[in-house]
Amino acid sequence: MVGYCCKKNSPDGAKIFTSTELKKATNDFHDNRIVGQGGFGTVYKGFLSDNTIVAVKKSKQVDPKQVEQFINEVIVLSRINHRNVVKFLGCCLETQAPLLVYEFINNGTLFEHIHNKAKASSFSWDMRLRVAAEAAGVLAYLHSAASPPIIHRDVKSANIVLETNFTAKVSDFGASKLFPIDQTQLSTVVQGTFGYLDPEYMQTNQLTGKSDVYSFGVVLVELLTGKKALSYDRPEEERNLANYFLSTLKQNNLLQVLDDSIVCEGNSEKLTSVAMLAERCLHVKGEDRPSMKEVAMELEGLRLAGKHSWNQTEPIEEESESLLSGKMNAFAIATGEGSSTSIGYDSTMDHISGR
């Protein structure tokens, strides 16, 4: 099955690599070629004989579950053809666990650009909004255009990588699920990363496209605040970013949590609009969340609003100023209740694995 998918993956044709090729490409998987590590194993930077730079994903250990996840990723990627998805180049079947080969993305992960102070200082709001719109477009494609639909199941900033020009690409489909067209939900063991996990999915084991929507909402909050999705270095009430963000909105104190560097850019209207969108994505009940298609359309509209006139500009601007100043008492936020690296090709920590 893996070999078949490798051959059928893309219009250009994915390749079956030999173990000799990949050992040579990575200098026998030398430590100085490591560009990312996680629970799955390690990602190495490699140079093929034609000088193509690649990322090689290698399992830490031969584990049936890891092998299954690798195979699942190949099967899912064989059904995706989107410019904002990390391109799958092929695999090696000669090793006990498959080695997966991808295009190499050299500008790190979204997580790094948000949370590394040196990088975050130059990561402007316009750049953040573009990345959000592109990533949302991928998820909308997976949910609405892929056949069968695909649920990513581990949406997070570490799984969005950036090219030098800051084009966003979604990565790590090891946890993804092909969704039967005739079903609206799928019963499955919970898998994902703490801080991003949909609380409804955690409680019911029922996976839907709205689970990705919740996780993406957390990514939006990261972009807005510059804070990590989960941090035990923060006070207890602030550890879970999604819950803290919703609580802050409920108190009309959005400005309190926004990243200072983007507030200084004077984008109060767009910041407020994205904050309101993030709030809708984070509704406890999945049925109350927008679809990824709706999210993508709204973000793209906001991204283009700076270049074209928009009929709603004035009222939104007034609403923005009111919310940011904490004086908009009529603004109702329905929060509900309940709790919820250079290459980001897999999860790093606080991860739940299922099947």
Automatic annotation (TrEMBL):
Please give the GO cellular component terms listed in this UniProt entry.
plasma membrane
Q: Which GO terms describe its molecular function?
A: ATP binding; protein serine/threonine kinase activity
Catalysed reactions, semicolon-separated: L-seryl-[protein] + ATP = O-phospho-L-seryl-[protein] + ADP + H(+); L-threonyl-[protein] + ATP = O-phospho-L-threonyl-[protein] + ADP + H(+)
The answer, when asked if ATP-binding is one of the entry's keywords, is yes
| CDD domains on file | STKc_IRAK (cd14066)
Q: What is its main location?
A: membrane
In terms of superkingdom, the source organism counts as: Eukaryota
Q: Where in the cell is it found?
A: Membrane
Record-listed ATP binding positions: 58
Biological process terms from the Gene Ontology for this record are: cell surface receptor signaling pathway
Which membrane topology term applies here? Answer: Single-pass type I membrane protein
Q: Which UniProt keywords apply?
A: ATP-binding, Kinase, Membrane, Nucleotide-binding, Serine/threonine-protein kinase, Signal, Transferase, Transmembrane, Transmembrane helix
Q: Which family does it belong to?
A: Belongs to the protein kinase superfamily.
Q: What is this protein called?
A: Serine threonine kinase
Species the sequence originates in: Olea europaea subsp. europaea
